[in-house]
Amino acid sequence: STLEEKVAARYGVSPEKVFWVSEIESKWKGSVRVKALPPPGRDDNLVWMVDLVRWNVVPLSPEAKEISSWQQKPKNVP
User: Fold this and answer.
1) Range of the structural domain that residue 51 is part of
2) Residue 71 in domain
3) Rounded CA gap, 58 and 9, in Å?
4) For the chain, what is the HEC assignment?
5) pTM over 0.90
6) Are strands 31-37 and 56-59 parallel, antiparallel or unpaired?
């Protein structure tokens, strides 16, 4: 499954309802830090580093590492 699907599964929403924020100033280094915005009432810290040259995505926060390690959607999520 895609990263968007994994984040949506964690939040219990559909993938199109996942919103992302990037740190524009990090772009000058050839990479961008992006964060999935949690829905109201959630306090997750889901942060990844996206390498704009190699198109590589690396999880930075512990929560992002957990989600990135999922091979498929958790069974208890629709």
Assistant:
1) 3-61
2) no
3) 19
4) CCHHHHHHHHHCCCHHHCEEEECHHHHHHCEEEEEEECCCCCCCCEEEEEECCCCEEEECCHHHHHHHHCCCCCCCCC
5) no
6) unpaired
